[in-house]
Design goal:
The complex is a heterodimer of chains A (118) and B (150). With 118 residues, chain A is of the alpha+beta class. Chain A is 53% helix and 11% strand. Chain A has a four-stranded mixed sheet. In chain B, strands 1, 2, 3, 4, 5 and 6 form a six-stranded mixed sheet that branches. Chain B has a single domain, classed as Mannitol-specific EII, Chain A (3-Layer(aba) Sandwich). Chain B is globular and about 35 Å long. The chains are: A alpha+beta (118), B alpha/beta (150). Chains A and B meet through helix 1, helix 2, helix 3 and strand 1 of A and helix 2 and helix 3 of B.
């Protein structure tokens, strides 16, 4: 897997984790069952996301920031040829390439970085 | 929704080889049937969640959990280490039972939170630690979930 894509995946997963901490039900669970200090956790996740973002190459980081400013999802999974960022089929050639995930690609429709799952 | 629907025998380890928290996470992640790279990413995410605060909820039970793009559906695993693992749990006691929950960012049926909540509820029942100590097969683990109407 491309190392930049791997960084983007980590960033996306951390952003999801952060988003979860502002979701009522999960916030309650994390605070009550796991005794998490929500504000501290959010601050910690924000710092980690930024630290990882700094490790992206300049061009990818700029693209990442453009997407991240507008939408919660910066990386979309591609499952069975469908981009789950916009639910549009990505090009067959792209989806079937043997070297998928070996370079950073974006969805031509929604702009999300693409991660081929499975 | 029944918890038993999510557990498969191959992801129920009644005798974890792990000696540490990290090894236990790796061992349970390896039950998920992912490729090596995805396992690594998932392990890293679980570690990052643990860094926010231990998922050891006390009474010997831990519930590591996260969402990650590397899985396409909700997965759960159970691991038991009767000699105990240092999980930095809330009650500072060793963890003997580990329930791992991972889910994709997007779920059509949104099962992640209900499953996490039900396992947490299960873990808080007074007799559960003793019952988990007594089971001797994955099938008995499933039967225990059934008996608890989970």
């Amino acid at each position: 897997m491309d190392q930049q894509l791997e960084l983007l995946l980590e960033i996306q997963d951390l952003r999801m984790q952060r988003r979860g901490l502002t979701d009522g039900t999960l916030t309650d669970l994390e605070a009550e069952v796991f005794d998490i200090k929500i504000e501290d956790a959010i601050r910690s996740l924000d710092e980690k996301v930024e630290e990882l973002a700094q490790r992206l190459t300049r061009g990818i980081r700029e693209r990442y920031r453009r997407i991240a400013d507008k939408a919660p999802r910066v990386v979309a999974p591609v499952i069975n040829g469908i981009c789950y960022g916009c639910f549009v089929a990505v090009s067959t050639a792209r989806a079937s390439e043997a070297d998928r995930n070996l370079r950073v690609e974006s969805c031509e429709y929604c702009g999300c970085f693409l991660y081929h799952v499975g | 929704m029944q918890l038993r629907e999510f557990f498969v025998p191959s992801a129920i380890k009644l005798d974890l080889a792990a000696e540490t928290k990290d090894e236990a996470l790796k061992e349970l992640v390896s039950c998920m049937g992912l490729d090596g790279k995805s396992e690594g990413i998932l392990y890293k995410m679980l570690k990052r969640r643990e860094n926010l605060g231990s998922t050891g909820i006390g009474r010997g039970i831990a519930i590591p959990h996260c969402r990650s793009l590397v899985v396409t559906r909700l997965r759960v695993a159970f691991g038991r280490k009767l000699s105990g693992l240092d999980f930095k749990a809330i009650d500072e006691k060793p963890v003997r039972y580990v329930f791992l929950i991972v889910a994709p960012p997007l779920e059509v049926s949104n099962q992640y939170l209900p499953v996490l909540g039900r396992i947490a509820q299960f873990g808080k029942e007074a007799d559960v630690p003793d019952l988990l100590a007594e089971i001797s097969s994955p099938e008995q683990f499933i039967e225990l979930l059934d008996a608890k109407d989970l």
